Each structure stands twice: as C-alpha cells, then as structure tokens.
TrEMBL record:
Residues passing through the membrane, by range: none
SUPFAM superfamilies per record: Retrovirus zinc finger-like domains (SSF57756)
Signal peptide limits: none
GO molecular function (one): nucleic acid binding
Domain CCHC-type: 208-221
This protein's record includes keyword Zinc-finger: yes
SMART domains, alphabetized: ZnF_C2HC (SM00343)
InterPro entries found in the cross-reference section: Znf_CCHC, Znf_CCHC_sf
Keywords: Metal-binding, Zinc, Zinc-finger
Protein name: CCHC-type domain-containing protein
Species assigned in the record: Zophobas morio
Length: 275
C-alpha cells in the first residue's frame, strides 16, 4: 500500500472525518521536522498516554500531525505534555468542526460581555491554549439586560461543556445548553411539524402574533398578550412561558438525545453513510 509521505493539513482533516482517530498538529518556528520530532519523542517517551498514539507524520509545510486513538483523555494529556515541555511549540487539535460539531447556547452573560471573553472563558474551562476550533456567534441582548451567545464546537468538547452546565464568564456563570432544533408550523403555529406536513384545520397566517386575534399585525396590536395555542393570557404564542412550547422542547431534546444509529435500523455509526 502506498502511503503519501507529505500531507496537507486539509488532507489530515479529510482523513479524520470517518476514522476513529484524533490528530494533534505540532510545529515550532525555526525548528526543522526531525529536530522537533526528537524533542516530541523525548517528551512523550515515559508517558503512559503515548500508547494512544498511532502514527506521526509530516505535512507538506513541515508540520507534524500526530494521529491518536479516539480517546479524549489520552489525546488531551498528550497535547498538554507537549505544550508544557516544548517551549514555544504550537500545538493544536484538529477537529472537523462542520461535520462533527454541536451547537451550544450560553445564556446569562452580563450586558458588557463580548465574543472574545466568551471564547477565552471556554478555552480556560476546557484547559485549552488555542488548539480547539470553535465558531462563536454574536452576543445577543435579552430583555433583562443579560446576553446570550451561540457557539459551535466539536462533539466531544460540546459534551464536556454540557456536562459542566456552567462556564464562568467575567463575574457571572454562563448557563450552557445544547441547542435543539424545534420544528414549528407557520400555518397553524403548532410544534412538531412544518407547513408541508400540516393537517390542522386552523390557519393562523392572518392571526396577530401577540393577541391571537385576526385582522391586524402584532406591530399594530394594542391588546394584551394572549396565546391561541394554550388559550392563556399573559404570554404570546411561541413564548417559553407557554406549556405547549415547553412540552415541544422536551420532545425535541429527547429526540436529539436518541443515538443516531437508532435511525438506521440498528446499523452502527460507521455504516450510516448510506442512510
Ligand atoms: Zn401546522
Ligand atoms: Zn393583536
Ligand atoms: Zn401558550
């Protein structure tokens, strides 16, 4: 079998996509590949975690991808050992953020928190020095002068964060939740289906979103809020105060937690590409 000696970082990423491995990429300015390799080897020699290492390669631009088993703890420890022992080494974990990521929602940020603070806080929480790839949305203000933000991060780190529940950002605890996709029909406003699957008799497309009456838009509405879904006053349709909303959210979360492989006649994850 021919194994290409030189790989681009992109190639490493592609290869990781469907394999059961992680990749740590190491490089150090002004140090050639073989010298750096010797340093890395000397650093890891006595370490138990090195047993997770499968191969050490080089990229065309002289960086060093270290392929490890898909063992988060061992991979993290290996990365940490290299960072702590080889001065000025640039060490990062390659993750395929688009393919293998989750979206988290963080609420309860104070009114002045910005994106960079959120990134820093998350890196600190994960013990990361810049190796973890993440996409961070814009901070959004809420009505009570707090802010929320959405972040996209690889599945393993997302799960670590979700388990922690909170991340300290500035002087407050940001609450971490996994974002779940909720279907909602814009014709009847009910949850759990979209307009193409709507079999409800009621059509609310001309209904005011605020008071639930027809003939005007929410922007022109002077009535008190009333939700036509649960017929209660005090909240609008789609509000998190609505019982229908909370039931639908629970259901969406339950569905999100169902292992993917169950959607494919019990086939395991590696074999789901055809589904
Ligand atoms: Zn509907
Ligand atoms: Zn109205
Ligand atoms: Zn309601």
């Amino acid at each position: 079998m021919y194994v290409p000696k030189s790989l681009q970082t992109e190639t490493v990423k592609r290869q990781l996509k469907d394999t059961n491995s992680y990749a740590i990429v190491v490089d150090k300015k002004g140090v050639d590949y073989n010298t750096l390799l010797k340093e890395v080897k000397a650093t890891l020699e006595e370490k138990e975690d090195r047993k997770a290492i499968r191969t050490v390669r080089s990229t065309r631009d002289g960086k060093m991808p270290i392929i490890t088993d898909k063992d988060q703890e061992k991979e993290q420890n290996t990365r940490k050992t290299i960072m702590e022992n080889i001065e000025e080494a640039n060490v990062r974990k390659i993750t395929n953020i688009n393919r293998n990521s989750k979206t988290l929602f963080i609420r309860n940020l104070d009114a002045t928190t910005n994106k960079e603070e959120v990134k820093r806080a998350i890196r600190r929480e994960l013990g990361d020095r810049g190796g973890i790839e993440m996409k961070v949305g814009e901070v959004r203000p809420t009505r009570n002068s707090t802010q929320t933000i959405t972040i996209m991060i690889d599945k393993d780190n997302a799960e670590t964060l979700t388990r922690k529940e909170f991340v300290i950002i500035g002087i407050v605890k940001g609450k971490i939740e996994e974002r779940v996709q909720m279907q909602r029909c814009y014709r009847c406003w009910a949850y759990g289906h979209t307009v193409s699957g709507c079999v409800e008799e009621i059509d609310r497309r001309n209904t005011c979103y605020k008071c639930g009456k027809e003939g005007h838009q929410a922007g022109q509405c002077n009535n008190e809020a009333k939700c036509p879904l649960c017929e209660k006053e005090g909240h609008t349709a789609g509000s998190s105060a609505c019982k229908m909303f909370r039931t639908a959210l629970k259901e969406a979360k339950r569905r999100a937690e169902t292992p993917q492989n169950l959607n494919c006649n019990g086939a395991n994850k590696q074999n789901t590409a055809h589904c």
